Amino acid sequence: VQKRRVEDLPPPLTVVVPCFNEKDAIRPVLSRLETIVRDIGGEIVVVDDGSTDGTAEILDRIAADDSAEDSIVRVIHHGRNLGYGAAIKSGVRRARYQWIVITDADGTYPNDRIADLVAEAENADMVVGARTQGDGGQPLLRRFAKGVLRAHCSWLVGEPIPDMNSGLRIFRKSVFEKFAKILPDGFSLTTTITVAMMRSRYRVVFLPISYSERVGRSKIRPLRDTLGFLQLIVRTGMYFAPLRVLLPLATLLMVGFVGSMGYDLFVLQNLTDKTNLLFLFAVNTVLFGKLADMIDKRS
């Protein structure tokens, strides 16, 4: 992607950095971000999400060292760990500028590509750094789960999504605020806003980026995150495309009803409760899907 001149880029931006227990990575990440943001114009808002490993103290020292009038780094502290999504919301609420960039504090994302994302944002509502070059050392099981979720979300929006939960992206603050009430406080915030914007026909551009192995310990917890993954599959479908989720189920129930009714009429010569229940379940599923779709359209 050809870089544009600084004066041709969108207005100054706010880089929001959610941070939880990143004492080994936070200094080099912020140091590089400061250089990048000073070239483009804007500020950096670091949201410490209740860190307990000394990260909060490091951030306070960085803020004290940068207390001069030309400082571009601001630090926000959560009294306890509220979640990745909650940290991003806090940063966006306190952002001074309309364009928001989010990136992680663990050194996995190529922040040197922020200028490329900003350049693409002139003709888009959101630009996502799609991790198509390298897997950042992710376990096979996690890559499989993400592949399933990506296929599910692509089916919901009706077009392919190269990376629906990348943590490096740029978007307009005003658009983010439109969806703020439905955005979760956990890691699924990025997935939810991707699906929400694409279903609402905002222009979302995916820019291929590399992805590095993180510095420090991963925050992934297998059991909790597996349950969260299953919940996310159901929630995104019911939030944004209830008919696409429920009509296949209703069709399956109706096929079961027709088959059961045929067996009852030609073999048993009696209409059974099973056939009646299948018919009621099929009709109720269709009605529930239509009602959910009407609520979705109105809201």
Account of the protein in words:
This protein is an alpha/beta fold and 299 residues long. The protein is built from ten helices and seven strands. A seven-stranded mixed sheet has the order 3-2-1-4-6-5-7, with helices on both faces. Helix 8 crosses helix 9 (242-268). The two termini are 37 Å apart. The mean pLDDT is 87.
Strand content: 5-15%
Helix proportion: 40-55%
Derived from helix and strand composition plus strand pairing, the structural class reads alpha/beta
SSE series: EHEHEHEHEHEHHEHHH
Strand order of the largest sheet: 3-2-1-4-6-5-7
Shape: elongated
Largest sheet: 7 strands, mixed
Beta strand count: 7
Cα(first) to Cα(last) distance is: 37 Å
- Supply Rg: 23 Å
Mean pLDDT across the residues is: 87
Count of DSSP H/I helices:
10
- The unreliable regions are none
